[in-house]
Amino acid sequence: MKILAAAAASPRVFMRLPRYRTLSVPLYHWPSVIIKRRRWPHVDRDVSHIIVRSTTRRETTTDGRLRGGVASARTVPKMKPTAADDGSGAKPTTDRWVDANGVATRVLCWGRPIDESGGPNKLVLCVCGNPGITEYYEKFLREIHRALDVPVWVVSHAGHEVPPSNVKLTLPDSKEYPDLYTLKGQVEHKLRFIEKYVPDNCDLYLVGHSIGSKVISELLKDDAMSKRLTVKRSIFLFPTLQKMRETPNGRNLIFHTRYFLSITVLLSWIFITFPSFIKTFLVNMTLVITEGGCVDDHVIRSTVRLIHPTVLRNVFSMAIDEMDKVYDLDVKPLKDNANRLHMYFGNCDGWCPTSYYDDITKCVPEVDAVLCDKGYNHAYVIQHSDEMAGIVVDWLKSDLGDVRSQ
Predict the structure, then answer these.
(1) Could you tell me the EC number(s) of this protein (predicted)?
(2) Which of 46, 81, 116 is the last residue of a domain?
């Protein structure tokens, strides 16, 4: 009140008062700004749209620190344009819902769309881990497409994404068709997808993450697929190929599904009733805390999609089936394809201890198996998409490096 009174009495006094500065940030980004308020350079990719209003003289500094918890105009670092800003193709070329084995299936495509023919008869196809939500792999696959300039597709797991209301395709009831969403059902789902949508005589490059590597190892045993097209290379990233229930994460999963699955599904029913911005805010806040920093928007969107009762039931149903079915190491498809197979293991992987890497190198010494020395996590799509994309590109460019000239 004293300030207002002084302003009314003397406009000159009012003009000498400090100017008010505001920080305009979407609600769902508040956790990122709060947690990282003293480490601004680490959050610039997620708050590049922040608008700082000030009538003070704008000066630039190089430290980029926040003062008093609010960024002034002279302390905000210069933002680098994101892929979405510079028009370089952050989003996939096409986002399609198709039918595969009777299940609504989402396919993201960079380069040639799924319903278009022509161009180089080469394709990089990614098989997700669990959960098999396509958007988790958006940044990773975008970088592969940029580097190689060949069509890149990623296909969701059956039942792991719910189609929007304007799509006429549906997800069959898991109680009526339980086999659709098991590990064997996911292998059949990928076989039917490849049979229906991948053109004949295609040079196919398969990239599998986690349980997606096991799915690919089963695909490689299918004679009908091998006669119709050529699998030029297969890449397994953090592969789960044996004794999953004996791993630290496997034991934790069994415990939590036994005692907490029902409450998790119940909470997801509550979650889906929230407005979209509240769901995004809650997910972002949780990821900032669990990951120790900001995450990309595509990770937030994917996690919002994950927290749905139908999706969670199918995800956990598949995971429990994995604990039972993935035990003994199936060496045959690895040996049969060793000369065109690359494997990347983590050195701190709760799903695949380094002893499993040792087993692979002993049983199949001719396979190109690499043990990570960078500390990348099993769920690399959250923090290390760019780095893992570079590794995959190095393996593929010997075959695909000359595609740009074709």
Answers:
(1) 3.1.1.13
(2) 81
Active site residue 32: no
355 is annotated as an active-site residue: no
User: Over the range 155-189, which residues count as b (16 or more CB within 10 Å of their CB) and which as e?
Assistant: bbbbbbbbbeeeeeeebbebeeeeebbbbebbbbb
Q: Amino acid identity of 27?
A: L
- The answer to whether residues 22 and 117 belong to one domain is no
Q: Active-site residue 349, yes or no?
A: yes
328: pLDDT strictly greater than 70: yes
d(CA 229, CA 201): 4
> Catalytic one among 44, 46, 321, 349?
349
Domain assignment of residue 295, yes or no: no
The single residue of 145, 209, 378, 384 carrying the catalytic annotation is: 378
Residues 53 and 174 in one domain: no
Taking residue 335's Cβ as centre, other Cβ atoms within 10 Å add up to 14
Which residues are within 8 A (CB) of 316 and not within 5 positions of it... i.e. 6 or more apart? Answer: 257, 261
Total domains in the fold of the chain = 2
What is the mean predicted confidence (pLDDT) over 161-171? 95
Q: Which residue, 12, 15, 9, 33, is CA-closest to 23?
A: 33
> Distance between CA atoms of 10 and 25, rounded to whole angstroms?
34
> 210, 217, 317, 385: which is the annotated catalytic residue?
210
The residue range of the domain holding 242 is 85-272+307-405
Single pTM value for the model:
0.79
**What would the pLDDT profile of 52-83 be if each residue is shown by its tens digit?**
333 333 333 333 333 333 333 333 233 333 33
Side-by-side strand order, sheet with 341-345: 94-100, 103-110, 152-155, 122-127, 203-209, 230-237, 341-345, 368-371
Residue 382, number of CB atoms within 10 A of its CB: 18
Tell whether 122 is covered by a domain: yes
Q: What is the pLDDT of residue 343?
A: 98
Pick left, alpha or beta for residue 207 (phi over 0 → left; psi -120 to 50 → alpha; otherwise beta): beta
52 pairs with which residues across the strands? Answer: 23
pLDDT of residue 116: 82
Higher-confidence residue of 393 and 18: namely 393
Round to whole Å and give the CA distance between 158 and 174. 11
